[in-house]
Specification:
283 residues, alpha/beta, Rossmann fold, 10 strands, globular, binds adenosine-5'-triphosphate, binds magnesium ion
Length: 283
C-alpha cells in the first residue's frame, strides 16, 4: 500500500493576541532558550507539537484527543489553511506548503462547523461550491444529483432550502460538497458530532463506502470512541499537541488493562493515555 499522506515533525504554535507596545517592538527577541523556536512565550499555545505519522492510501486514519489537543489545527495545516512553524507535510508526493495548489486539487475538508447558505437548496449550495472549483455547470448538475443520491438524500430534498433539513442530512450535503472536486484525500473533522444515532450511522456508512468502493483516503476526528473503533484502520491519539499513541484500535486496546471486568475499550485507552499532565499537575 502506498503512502498517501506523510506528516513529518510538524509544529504549530499560536501567539495570544496582545496589545501593541512600542517598547516590545524594539526589544531584542529572546533566543536560544532551549525551546524549539527560540522564542516561545508563556502565553503561546503549542497546538501541534512535533507530530509525525503516515496515512496509507485507502485507509481511514483516526485522530483522537481531548478538546484542544490540536486535531482541528492539524487538519487545517494539512488542508493548506494554516502554515506550520516547522516540519513538512506531503500529500501524494506534493509538499503542502510549497505545492499548495497541487495539494488543494487532491485534498478536501469537511469542517466540524460546515456552513451553508441556509435559504438555498443543496443543489444551489453545491453549484456555488462547484463554481469556486471552476467546474462547468451542465455536467456538474448531473454529478451533484448523483453524489447526493449516492449519499442517501431523497430527490425532492435536493431542491428545498437547507434550513428545512435535519443536521444529519446537512452533514451529508457537506460531505457531498467536499466530494465534488473528486478528492483523493478527505479530511473529516468530527463528521458525526451532534447527530442522532440514525443519522450518525448513515454518515458512518458513507465514510465506509468511500473507502471500500471509491478508495478515498481519509483522516477522521471524532470524540466517539466506538465510532473510531469501528471505522478506523489505525488511530493516533493526541494529547496537548503530541502523539501519545498510534496503532490499530485492536493493538491499542491490548496496551491497556482495565479493572472493571469488561473487555478493554478504546475509551479505556483514551482515558489512560490522555490528560496525564493534568493529573500530575493536580498531585
Ligand atoms: N486560530 C487560533 N488562534 C489561537 N489559538 C488557537 C487557534 N486555533 C486553535 N488554537 C488553540 O490551539 C489548541 C488546539 O486547538 P484545536 O482546535 O486544534 O483542538 P481540537 O483538538 O480540534 O479540539 P476540539 O476537540 O475541541 O475540537 C487550543 O489550545 C486552541 O485554543
Ligand atoms: Mg476540533
Amino acid at each position: 500500500m502506498s503512502q498517501a499522506v506523510i506528516i513529518n515533525d510538524v509544529y504549530k504554535k499560536f501567539g495570544k493576541p496582545s496589545t501593541f507596545s512600542w517598547k516590545r517592538m524594539f526589544k531584542p527577541k529572546a533566543n536560544g532558550n532551549g525551546t524549539k523556536n527560540g522564542n516561545d512565550k508563556k502565553t503561546d499555545v503549542i497546538a501541534v507539537d512535533n507530530v509525525s505519522f503516515v496515512i496509507r492510501e485507502g485507509e481511514i486514519f483516526g485522530v483522537l484527543g481531548p478538546n484542544g489537543s490540536g486535531k482541528s489545527t492539524l487538519i487545517r495545516l494539512m488542508s493548506t489553511l494554516l502554515l506550520p512553524d516547522s516540519g513538512d507535510m506531503k500529500v501524494f508526493g506534493h509538499d503542502v506548503v510549497k505545492e499548495s495548489f497541487a495539494v488543494q486539487k487532491i485534498i478536501n475538508r469537511v469542517s466540524v462547523d460546515a456552513s451553508f447558505f441556509k435559504k438555498l437548496s443543496p443543489m444551489e449550495n453545491l453549484m456555488y461550491g462547484a463554481r469556486l472549483y471552476g467546474m462547468a455547470s451542465g455536467e456538474t448538475k448531473k454529478r451533484i444529483v448523483e453524489i447526493l443520491t449516492r449519499l442517501g438524500l431523497e430527490k425532492h430534498t435536493i431542491y428545498q432550502p437547507m434550513e428545512k433539513m435535519s443536521r444529519g442530512m446537512q452533514q451529508k450535503v457537506a460531505i457531498a460538497r467536499a466530494l465534488l472536486s473528486k478528492p483523493k484525500v478527505l479530511l473529516l473533522d468530527e463528521p458525526t458530532t451532534g447527530l442522532d444515532p440514525r443519522s450518525k450511522r448513515e454518515v458512518q456508512a458513507v465514510v465506509e463506502e468511500l473507502r471500500d468502493k471509491h478508495g478515498v483516503t481519509m483522516l477522521l476526528t471524532t470524540h466517539d470512541m466506538v465510532e473510531a473503533d469501528v471505522l478506523c484502520d489505525r488511530v493516533a491519539i493526541l494529547d496537548k499537541g503530541k502523539v501519545v499513541a498510534m496503532d490499530t484500535p485492536e493493538s491499542l486496546k491490548k496496551l491497556v488493562h482495565n479493572n472493571n471486568g469488561h473487555e478493554t475499550s478504546l475509551e479505556d485507552v483514551f482515558m489512560e493515555l490522555t490528560g496525564r499532565q493534568l493529573k500530575e499537575e493536580e498531585e
